[in-house]
């Protein structure tokens, strides 16, 4: 089981402080989950006392609604509701099982059974049954045919064709009334009807979609498809009661009314994926070529990770275990195939098994472009965030560039390692075969940090008790796990993709939850995560408060006419103190915010199946709050650094800086449908490239956010004099007035942004950067509409000494 320790002391302290408040929450949730008391009359109570046992008609072959499993247990949606009703009323049910549904309805006519748990109301049934209120809505019915069969858009297209129907089901009667030209073939249950179509004994089957999806998986039928799912609208299920027991109908309605929304949701999520129609989630329709491939290759040799828990690992008996293995076991049940699994310690060895032809399939491999030629991949089925891990003495790492010159552990063959090598060549990468080796070397001080996925690294940290290792930073990378086959096994890759697509989300969640359980220090329950955020956000609010207070203090003191020098001195001291305070607080917040964000991401990915819609909404709001808080802290740190850090300036490569900025912001300009104009050349200037890039990122992101659609964005540069270069971004947003512009470059100054998120620090940072580099920053409305945001930098020494510089005069400007 996965143990993730909250390693940062401030987070542990926050958990301890808020734990007491959980008592109230737990009590409230428990009270909410209690079922209400039934308001039964004395007559109804007497009737129940006289009828303690109810004879219940059971259809053994109607999953997921009701069925008898291989162990003889009565399961499904309807049995779960029956159990709840029995508990509410204090009665028991005697199961009366008949192989044919028609036999159950005959028993109901002769009153040799008392209750049928799930029926649709029809005039014929109303002659001998009374019905409860509806308690569950089905998913409708469909026409199922073989893969490659002619198009069947509706029931009318079935004329003259042999159609498999379930005898006694209302759907069979409706289908024959809708098209009497059908040649019916009646079967006892849906499974036999589908098997008849699969082997060519019938042209099509008209059955319930949810039941068909369940049976197709159970029977490993791979050559059927949904030809049409628009036969009839879904209708409610009702309980059917013998017609001489009207009092029992009234009692049943009270019991059903007492079922809470949470209880309804639990039952539904247990049996049906509510987010995906059954025909999309469970149909495993293979082509003729794929069916033939499986017939020729009944055994598939699989290479799996032996040391990548909880994704894949070897247990004490040497057996392969983990999430990826559970997925393979599910596919084994759905397809006529057997997986022979061997484990290997590294990703490199997994790929070697494919290349050498020893393995047909790799169970879990990080997908990367450079590997595409060596393997055929399915779509990723898990995405793992990648973080930076280090010892307790390591401060927060805001960017991988801060690890330049340091020894950083990575995994051999990990696509992330290749990305780091390309983008940060100054980092000394030390390769290890697996996460366990990497964290061990990190704990011994043989490397300075480890860059690895949060899930498996945290698992091994918890297993070996290395609580001194903590998350010290986040990265823009993630590991996208997929299954891989040899390039010459494209058919197998296609089969595996279809199989993965067919796995219900509820099963995927079960696989993850089996191996991924969160246990924090101090007895931390994952519901405490919501409470951890409160003190963090309070501290962030204090930062905002003190910054605003400072702004008011600056305005008041600048306006004072007496003792200007002494008050300015005092003001500078307050500025320095506040800068130090903001930097200290923001730096301390960064690590727990990053850790909390990663934990919430894992919680969302691996535990979301346990939440109701309101909790899902709260989870999304929490992630957004963390993201916004993290951005605010980033900007506070940058603002502090710009004011205090000593830097060296040099000639900058403006074209490279602009290219990187546009690459980072690609999703924004694609969403804005932006048309971007760039100059052929740029003026030469000196500055500090990382800071100048921050200016471009801020100006460009604002241009894409606030411009009209499609966005018209123009970038340019010019010399204002031989000594000064000016750069600018023009966009077609609403033209700003001089009063509005005056609000933009002060702390927390924002205009009416119509829901666009922000905190009012971006342009303040832009101006501070420009001024630290010897220039300035500003904005102006354009004569022809739109706005231009600009900044200036000192020109290069070579340019200052040149006599051939083309200088733009103020009269030539279109501002």
Structure description:
This protein is an alpha+beta fold and 815 residues long. It is 44% helix and 21% strand. It contains 28 helices and 33 strands. Strands 15, 19, 20, 21, 22, 23, 24, 25 and 26 form a 9-stranded mixed beta sheet that branches. Strand 23 (407-411), helix 15 and strand 24 (428-432) form a beta-alpha-beta unit. Helix 20 (528-559) packs antiparallel against helix 21. The two termini are 64 Å apart.
Key descriptive features of the protein:
815 residues, alpha+beta, 5-stranded mixed β-sheet, 28 helices, 21% strand, elongated, disordered N terminus
CA radius of gyration: 34 Å
**Percent of residues in beta strands:** 15-25%
| Net shape | elongated
Low-confidence stretches: 1-35, 274-282, 517-532
Fraction of helical residues = 40-55%
What's the count of strands? 33
Instruction: Tell me which oligomeric state these chains represent.
Output: single chain
Largest sheet: 9 strands, mixed
Average residue pLDDT: 79
Main structural class: alpha+beta
Number of helices: 28
Topology:
Layout: H1 9-19, H2 22-33, H3 42-50, E1 53-58, E2 61-62, E3 66-68, E4 74-75, H4 77-89, E5 92-97, H5 101-109, E6 115-119, E7 129-131, E8 136-137, E9 141-146, E10 162-166, H6 170-178, E11 183-187, H7 190-198, E12 204-208, H8 209-219, E13 224-228, E14 236-242, H9 246-257, H10 261-271, H11 278-281, H12 288-296, E15 299-305, E16 307-308, E17 312-314, E18 320-321, H13 323-334, E19 338-344, H14 347-355, E20 361-366, E21 376-377, E22 382-390, E23 407-411, H15 415-423, E24 428-432, H16 435-443, E25 449-453, H17 454-464, E26 470-485, H18 490-502, H19 505-515, H20 528-559, H21 564-607, H22 613-644, E27 650-651, H23 654-664, H24 666-671, E28 675-677, E29 686-687, H25 689-706, E30 712-721, E31 724-731, H26 738-742, H27 762-772, E32 777-781, E33 787-794, H28 797-800
Parallel strand pairs: 1-5, 10-11, 10-12, 15-19, 15-20, 23-24, 23-25, 28-30
Antiparallel strand pairs: 2-3, 3-4, 6-14, 7-14, 8-14, 9-12, 9-13, 16-17, 17-18, 20-26, 21-26, 22-25, 22-26, 27-29, 30-31, 31-33, 32-33
Helix pairs in contact: 1-20, 4-9, 12-18, 20-21, 20-22, 21-22, 22-27, 23-25, 25-27
């Amino acid at each position: 089981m996965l143990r993730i320790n909250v390693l940062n002391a401030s987070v542990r302290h926050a958990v301890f402080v808020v734990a007491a408040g959980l008592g109230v929450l737990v009590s409230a949730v428990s009270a909410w989950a209690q079922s209400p008391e039934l308001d039964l009359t004395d007559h109804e109570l007497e009737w129940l006392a006289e009828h303690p046992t109810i004879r219940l008609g059971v259809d053994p072959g109607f999953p997921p609604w009701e069925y008898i499993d291989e162990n003889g247990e009565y399961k499904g949606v309807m049995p779960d509701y029956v159990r709840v009703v029995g508990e509410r009323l204090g009665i028991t049910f005697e199961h009366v099982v008949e192989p044919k549904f028609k036999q159950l309805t005959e028993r109901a006519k002769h009153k040799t059974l008392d209750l049928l748990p799930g029926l649709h109301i029809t005039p014929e049934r109303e002659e001998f049954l009374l019905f409860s209120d509806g308690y569950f809505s089905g998913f409708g019915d469909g026409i199922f045919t073989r893969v490659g069969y002619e198009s069947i858009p509706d029931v009318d297209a079935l004329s003259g064709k042999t159609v498999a129907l379930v005898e006694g089901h209302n759907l069979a009667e409706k289908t024959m009334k809708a098209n009497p030209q059908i040649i019916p073939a009646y079967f006892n249950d849906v499974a036999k009807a589908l098997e008849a179509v699969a082997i060519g004994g019938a042209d099509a089957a008209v059955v319930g979609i949810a039941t068909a999806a369940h049976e197709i998986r159970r029977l490993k039928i791979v050559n059927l498809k949904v030809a049409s799912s628009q036969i009839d609208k879904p209708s409610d299920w009702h309980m059917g009661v013998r017609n001489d027991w009207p009092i029992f109908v009234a009692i049943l309605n009270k019991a059903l009314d007492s079922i809470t929304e949470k209880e309804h949701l639990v039952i539904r999520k247990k049996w049906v994926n509510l987010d995906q129609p059954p025909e999309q989630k469970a149909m495993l329709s293979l082509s003729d070529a794929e069916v033939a491939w499986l017939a020729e290759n009944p055994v598939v040799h699989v290479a799996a990770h032996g040391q990548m828990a909880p994704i894949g690992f070897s247990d004490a008996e040497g057996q392969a275990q983990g999430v990826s293995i559970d997925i393979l076991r599910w596919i084994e049940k759905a397809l006529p195939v057997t997986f022979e699994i061997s484990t290997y310690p590294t990703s490199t060895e997994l790929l070697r098994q494919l290349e050498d032809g020893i393995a047909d399939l790799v169970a879990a491999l990080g997908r990367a472009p450079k590997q595409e030629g060596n393997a055929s991949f399915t779509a990723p089925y898990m995405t793992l965030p990648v973080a930076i891990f280090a010892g307790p003495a390591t401060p927060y790492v805001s960017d991988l560039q801060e690890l330049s010159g340091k020894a950083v552990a990575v995994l051999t063959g990990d696509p992330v390692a290749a990305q780091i090598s390309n983008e940060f060549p100054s980092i000394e990468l030390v390769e290890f075969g697996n996460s366990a080796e990497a964290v061990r070397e990190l704990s011994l001080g043989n490397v300075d940090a480890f860059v690895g996925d949060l899930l498996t690294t945290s698992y091994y940290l918890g297993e070996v008790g290395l609580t001194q290792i903590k998350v010290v930073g986040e990265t823009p990378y993630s590991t996208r796990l997929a299954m891989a086959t040899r390039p010459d096994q494209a058919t197998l890759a296609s089969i595996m993709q279809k199989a993965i697509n067919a796995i219900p989300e509820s099963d995927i969640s079960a696989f993850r939850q089996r191996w991924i359980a969160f246990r924090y220090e101090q007895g931390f329950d994952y519901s405490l995560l919501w409470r951890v955020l409160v003190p963090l956000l309070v501290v962030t609010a204090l930062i905002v408060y003190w910054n605003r207070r400072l702004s008011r203090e600056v305005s008041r003191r600048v306006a004072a006419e007496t003792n200007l020098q002494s008050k300015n001195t005092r003001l500078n001291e307050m500025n320095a103190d506040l800068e130090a305070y903001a930097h200290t607080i923001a730096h301390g917040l960064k690590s727990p915010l990053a850790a909390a964000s990663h934990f919430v991401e894992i919680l969302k990915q691996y535990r979301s199946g346990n939440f109701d819609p309101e909790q899902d909404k709260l989870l999304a709001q929490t992630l957004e709050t963390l993201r916004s808080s993290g951005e605010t802290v980033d900007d506070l740190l940058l603002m502090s650094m710009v004011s205090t850090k000593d830097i060296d300036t040099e000639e900058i490569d403006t074209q490279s800086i602009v290219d990187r900025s546009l690459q980072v912001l690609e999703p924004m300009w694609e969403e804005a449908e932006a048309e971007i104009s760039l100059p052929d050349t740029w003026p030469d200037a000196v500055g500090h490239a990382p800071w100048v890039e921050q200016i471009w990122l801020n100006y460009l992101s604002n241009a894409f956010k606030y411009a009209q659609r499609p966005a018209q964005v123009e970038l340019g540069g010019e010399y204002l004099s031989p000594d000064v270069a000016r750069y600018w971004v023009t966009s077609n947003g609403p033209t700003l007035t001089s009063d509005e512009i005056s609000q933009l470059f002060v702390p927390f100054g924002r205009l009416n942004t119509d829901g666009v998120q922000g905190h009012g620090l971006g342009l303040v940072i832009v101006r501070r950067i420009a001024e630290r580099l010897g220039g300035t920053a500003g904005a102006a409305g354009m004569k022809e509409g739109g706005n231009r945001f600009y900044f200036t930098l000192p020109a290069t020494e070579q340019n200052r000494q040149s006599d051939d510089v083309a200088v733009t005069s103020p009269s030539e400007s279109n501002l």
